[in-house]
Amino acid sequence: MKNTLRQVFHSSKFLVGFILFVLILLTIWIYPFLNPGNPLEMIGVGTFAKPGTYVSVYDALNTGTETLRLPDADDKRVDQLLSDADRVSMLEWFDIMEIDVSDLDATDTEALLDLWFEHYDQSIKPKGMTQAKRNFYKRLDNSVRQIRSADTLKIMHPEEGELVERGSINKTDYVNVGDVANVKLLPLGTDNFGRDVLKEMVSATGTSIVIGLIAGIVATLIGLTLGLLAGYVGGWVDDIIMFITNIFTVIPGFVLLILISYSIGQEQRGASVVAIVIGLTSWTWTTRSVRSQVISLRNRDHVNLSKLSGHSLVRIVATDILPYIASYVVMAFILQVSSGILAEAQLSLLGLGPKTTVTPTLGLMMNWAMLYSAHTNGSWWAYFPVILTITLISFSLNLMNTGLDQVFNPTLRD
Amino acid sequence: MSETRERKDYTNSPLCLSGRGVTKIFGLGDKKTVAVDHVDFDFHEGEFVSIVGESGSGKTTLSKMLLGLINTSEGEILFQGKPRNISSGRKKREYWKGIQAIFQDPFSSFNVFHKIDSVLLDCINMRGGRMLSHEKKVEMMTEACSFVNLKFAELTNKYPFELSGGQMQRLMIARIFLLKPRILLADEPTSMVDACSRATILDMLLDLRDETGMTIIFITHDIGLAYYISDTVYIMEHGRFVEYGKADEVILNPQAAYTKRLISDVPKIHEEWDLSTVELKAE
To answer: Same domain, yes or no, for A406 and A268?
Structure first.
């Protein structure tokens, strides 16, 4: 076992494929720590933002811990927030309260607000003022207080929320982009729903590999069981199994896959259901090849010796047949995983993939890109990296398979 | 062993394994091959029988039918005088307690994933020794190994492929020693090992027969070897027994042309090798 592994890792093809695949797996594992959050969160408005660094105009992170406002911009903001009608209403109040406003300029928001907070009190009931009017002033006061509450720079402690520093920023000050919370680096831009393509793709790669693994496990288990039974038991069992296998081989697998996916319906079609359906339609060639391997093994002397030692059928299959075809089964499994990932991509591209909006898969990303015509409007980042990832996964798996093939069949070595 | 090894007459010993009209046909219709063609035989208890024939004469097919690894097409095989019944797995297992085999190629006879210990432990378990203590089992395995001049202490925890061909074949005999079946079917056990190991292995087979009184059915293509060790010889040609009888009678006074040819084909050190009987087939 140890020697076999050493031999396998001496094969350069296997090693390259293995390292590539491990790198992909590591990326899937580590990237969410660097960039946490829901991969399907719509962080941008509008479709297909180009790759690049973006500063969000609103608090997309919704952190609520730091508020940064530049003074000049803030003044303008407050000016805008206080409408002319409100100013007139405020002046009217001062008039009723017989406050001297002769030296007050109505456009000077700061002075107006200072005076307002000095004199307004909700409990005062001026004579002759209707209830509706008094309520209007209460509402006005509330909105004015909200404007006022955020008009200077405050730096708060992220957790406790207590005030750490209070000051003002000059117009000529520089701000480090790294310190600004709302800056987002989008190396692959956003997709049609304004989602970070890279983050989405990393998550999608993970889902696709899981789909491939489930499909591979299902197909290999069915193929192995039927192949072992047909090959070892032989006779009418073999005839029946091969009859079924031949029928499934003759029906084009992909058409069957489309029909099954279609009949399951959108609602029930989760990632794992799609994976199982893929597995259920791709076991035939594993069965055929396992059967032929078993037939050549079942008349070997060590199997006869095991029979003579009184071992049961299950034990002979498990200990005298299976270990001898294990390397072959591993190779078949790797190819099944690879073709499972491709089958999911094909299905999803046709719109028959897993249910949308819950988990992204590589196929679904291509489907979305196609539906929103990314290929015609030049948004290459929405589909090209996805295609590249699928290619890389298939490439690494096939490379591993070829490497294993060369180790286990020495005649193939060059 | 010596030239003067006495051959006992077994014709009056109880029957151990016999066959009537045993036939094996492979394939159907035009592709039909008759591998074994209506053979009759009677093997007695304690007898050392050789079945001699050239390659493709049906020896191995017959041995597999005797072992119950393949079914007969026609005819019946009697085990200890009664028709053999191996219709179910349980009955087959019971039958295999009475008949065991040594195969031709020691390198392919062992499962390369199992250690030597497990091969021998299987035999102890089959003989109903599953409940024995570990010490007792080791003692039995050591005894079996020393019977075939192997040291169990050196073999334990090793894999069969770490041994030489001769050692593996001796391990096979150790297995038989543990199982002590009534019948041993040795299918060319010496053809894949060197001449020195061959003599040792044959000696061990004879010792085993003398010790336990088992019947040994020895299948070989080498008529000289058959003469050297057997009591009774069956000569097989194209699936039929052309001649059989006591080894001395058959080999010193052959009747069938095929037997004569087989005998003349044995190379002799002090004589010119007569190749005139070899059929040269022209294209």
So the answer is: yes
